[in-house]
Amino acid sequence: MALDVEATRAHLQQIYAEGFRSIAVCLMHSSVFPDHELQIEEIAREMGFEHISVSHRVSQRPKIVPRGNSTVIDFYLTPTIERYLSQFSASFPSFDNDHTKLEFMQSDGVLVPASKLSGLHAILSGPAGGVVGYARTSYDPESKIPIIGFDMGGTSTDVSRYDGQSDHIFETTTAGIPIQAPQLNVNTIAAGGGSILVWKDSLMAVGPQSASSHPGPACYRNGGPLTVTDANLALGRLIPEHFPSVFGPNEDEPLDREIVLARFQELTDIINHEIDKSLTWAEVADGFLQVTNTVMCGPIRQLTEGRGHDAAKHHLASFGGAGGQHACAIAEALGIRHVLIHKHSSILSAYGIGLADVVHDEERPYAKVFDNSTRNSIYADLEGLSLVARNHPTLNHFSHVDGHQFLFMQYDGSETALMVPVKDGGDPKQEFIDAHHQQFGFSPVDRRIFVDNIRVRAVARSDFGDDTPPSLQALQDISGKIPPATPASTKSVYFRSPGWVDTPVYLLGSLPVGSTVQGPALVVDNTQTIVIDPHCSATATKDLLVLDVGSEKKVVSATTIDPVQLPVFRHRFYGVAEQMGRSDWTSCAIFSPDGSLVANAPHVPALIGSIKFAVKSQIQQWTGKLQDGDVLLSNSPAFGGVHPHSPDFTVITPVFDSEGKEIILDGLSWPPCRRSMPPSSKRLWEEGAVFDSFLLVRDGEFAETELKRLLCDEPAKDPGSSGSRCFQDNVTDIKAQVAANNCGICLVRQLIKEYTMDVVQMYMGAIQDSAELATRKLFKKLVKKFSENRISAVDYMDDGTPIHLEVTINEQDGSAVFDFTGTGPEVYGNWNAPIAICNAAVIFALRCMVDSDLPLNQGCIKPITMITPEKLLLKPSTEAAVCAGNVLVTPREIPYQSTQIRKNAKTLQMAMLLMPPKAPSLVLRS
To answer: Which of 53, 94, 122, 143 could form an S-S bond across to 75 if both were Cys, CB 3.0 to 4.6 Å?
Structure first.
């Protein structure tokens, strides 16, 4: 179909008349057919538009939404960058000379000529410079030990990974917007030196709010809040004498430690009064640093263990202004033995830009099965694309250019493509299968593999700098042969153990190559402070300070709750669930031995909030019968009111210690079962196979034969029914859930090894107690604010069935009764909602209303008594169809009620309205 040129011209004229001079053009299939976009571009250019972003140049990949978002970002940012570059270049006439080049960093860690820089590709250029910096200065190609990059600045921390090859991603979400653009895989954490320290609901919290540069931390003398920087300063880990006098209203004063000490004492008094303890201000400040380190370890574990890598088998490259103050603690928490700190670590991102290569990429959309019959033709297409990339004008002035070839491969029916390098003598197909299994925990059987895109990168290596990193063997050879360095001074510094210590301070530039510094110690220069903990040491090389990290046995009481350890465990529990659910379609959670929800990752809260019923039912069924390695499967709405509908399989795995004490891990997904979502089902058996309690794995044996009988043979006995149409897919999905739980088992056992089972179980209860306390405070606050403790409302389904809710709050103890009496009876249809859904809706809504850094857990609903009579829409009989109950009833069950309650009594606030159908994970992340 031809483009309607006249209509297009008229529309562009209207836009031009409104004053717009930059436009974005994105058409549905332009990644493979760009002709219409080119026509629109030509018309727009003739009309005088100054900048035109067309999507097929921005991204040659399918998926119009991220491609369209990327095009809009490009057209928004690029004109501003071009204006800046024009003004900058005007001051340097030599840039027009062939011998003087102006190049800029991109988010994928490479340099491009100024004329080629676009806004889309420069979003993360700063963090990318840091990745290049530590990759070129710290990675040892002899040992091939991968490196974790830890870049801690003022407002945030960036973490990344390098194993000899840059870790690129091509689809990501930036500022909430999904985009398509090659960039280094850098995870940003809202925790930096300026992160604000908060005590709330008996929990220490760090960030995500930041004091920013103004007013900045309290020590900046501008009335700012207590921050991580203040904690380090108060404990002696920062030395004011090594900072310039640029603080205060006139920017001419030094850091103010006195105001920081006074503010910490005020906060300590509040904490001690609330929890009836006798903590010192130093213990409180150190506690906040422990929480900070735990927060930062979470994304590192996700980047490593969440993708099948052992964090302990890495080096840690620490850089950024605040990195050196936390590096030892981060490494110890992750089990990492060595930390590498470059002499330019505080400005390593800038230094890395100078070390970056000049690169040109070529990419082509592709759609071909990869097998023996197509292998040679795919390789031929790659060679042709390589020739184009290496001969690009950008690389003409380089004498040597390397070419790297990649295939984007995915399983038939999957939307997840992985980039696989094509190497001489390698097998891309097997590499893809291995990479998929490592990242997602499973590989489909007998599934075709497609090549989605082909990509070639031509690389001209930078020769700037001489930063060849030393091998660890070389360090061992020279260590101890050089006389110890002489400290420049001594400083009193607080360490968790042994407390305040007179600590030597060394000047980084004065350390002889090969000299060793024993901790505790501080190493400083004009731009950084490095803290060497008591059980650590450091060896100086020409360009690096290499820290050897020891370990300190954790001693945590199993009988008394420590207010410092409580938020630490909160983040550890959350991290386990998050890493279990590293595949996007599996929701995962951790439960205490009694089946109470402890923590979940931000997946699907409507499902997570209901799994408790499944877990408790299985505990009742299997008490005393389970053994280590057993795995259970269930999906029956009647068996504890398990899930929204029968297609959702729950896989439950108990974790035992040597004494038989247990913790429950749970993974839930929705594999495509036969007739699992029929639009007109009236009875439960019409919605798929129902599993009350099925022993899926015992003694390492997966019960596939029995599973096939129950999924394929038994359902076919029902009139007009058949078994699963895709049994192998069902098995693959369920095995992926088992793999997710196995990942959780390893992480939980690691936690138990660190702290003991008694301690872990005690803090499981303590986290729920904190959530319960926050919920009770919420109810008391609402009654006090609005002077009403009884509120009610009613709403109606499309067929007229009422949903009635009356909430009665006890203002004395903060408990509440949610009474759904008056709700209509179950229906002869499939929008009945099991009681688990009612529970999930209430627990999620309450969690949204609690303004605190708490995970969604059972404590949120402990103060609630729910009254739901039998055989109502919200508590149907065991044979009632339920597959649509979640998506149809939930939006009425809580959000509408909260609206009416808010109108009638001005109490339960808009937070309950956040729960749309299925309550997508985006809501939790917001």
So the answer is: 53
